């Protein structure tokens, strides 16, 4: 817990990809699936991420099922926290751009928490031009980064396995062998969480699947063959009615990075370096090849994300200097108390 986050379930719910910013917030934070959602509003540096880190420490793994949702551009910050008990789920999330969120079901489920009540509005108004300039700089650098990501995506030409002969029976038998022929254990639908992101640090892969699974199967081979194996894993888990966490690729919404069957304690990954190797190409008539693309474009995108983050951190310093964090502490304790009442 060196980063102050007391849970092993760590995911992203948004991604910077070939087609710009893609948010899974509407799916992850579907109001109908929650008892309560606290939507935090406030500028950069107003304490949203710190508040949510405190939430994870108030509801640690074991007594609760807690998830930390990280910011895809800055993986040191949180975008949300989900806490679940037998009485239901409660979430606290950042409702500001780029994943702007208002009260979808006001009062009954969604509740706006205005952290702007703790800032010195007069002092911020006096720095209006500086704030406007940094905000424009941040937006411009994000646009540049997305243009480079889009250009990189156009240089990739993945081998397609759609019409290729596949030994589906052998594939299924191998997957079932790895799963241990599990029985039905859950009727809840699969959930979608991202375990990989691209931002100011370049590509970041969270270790969540490897941490939560006793065994992790690492797929080798072409991207198309790995994708086909993962789709078969998903199909089998659905047939067996086993709850799964599906991790879409942050770059390409049509691809999957991995699948976790937490109840069966096994994960399947198409990315990373650690795990029990499985040659996905072995189930197909030929070995696929992938065009890896022009990685110089990815480096340029990373540089633009870093520049956007510099502007963001400069904005944070302005807002942080004008905050009364004792007010934020009061908000935090109030939210924790409300959550305990709901989940106890």
Overall outline: globular
How many helices?
Answer: 9
Low-confidence stretches: none
Order of strands, main sheet, comes to: 1-5-6-7-4-8
DSSP helix fraction: 25-40%
- What is the percentage of strand-forming residues? 15-25%
Question: How would you sum up this structure, described in words?
Answer:
- The chain is α/β, with parallel strands linked by helices.
- Helices cover 38% and strands 24% of the residues.
- It has nine helices and 18 strands.
- It has helices at residues 25-28, 48-58, 121-126, 128-155, 168-179, 208-212, 223-239, 295-321, 325-343; strands at residues 9-12, 14-17, 20-23, 36-41, 65-70, 78-85, 88-94, 110-114, 157-158, 191-192, 196-199, 202-205, 215-220, 245-248, 256-261, 266-269, 276-279, 290-291.
- The strands form five sheets. It has a six-stranded mixed beta sheet with strand order 1-5-6-7-4-8.
- A hairpin with a 4-residue loop joins β15 and β16 (266-269).
- α2 (48-58) runs parallel beside α9, α4 (128-155) runs antiparallel to α8 and α5 (168-179) crosses α7.
- The radius of gyration is 22 Å and the shape is globular.
- It starts with 8 loop residues before the first strand and ends with a helix.
Write the layout of secondary structure elements.
Blueprint: E1 9-12, E2 14-17, E3 20-23, H1 25-28, E4 36-41, H2 48-58, E5 65-70, E6 78-85, E7 88-94, E8 110-114, H3 121-126, H4 128-155, E9 157-158, H5 168-179, E10 191-192, E11 196-199, E12 202-205, H6 208-212, E13 215-220, H7 223-239, E14 245-248, E15 256-261, E16 266-269, E17 276-279, E18 290-291, H8 295-321, H9 325-343
Helix pairs in contact: 2-9, 4-8, 5-7
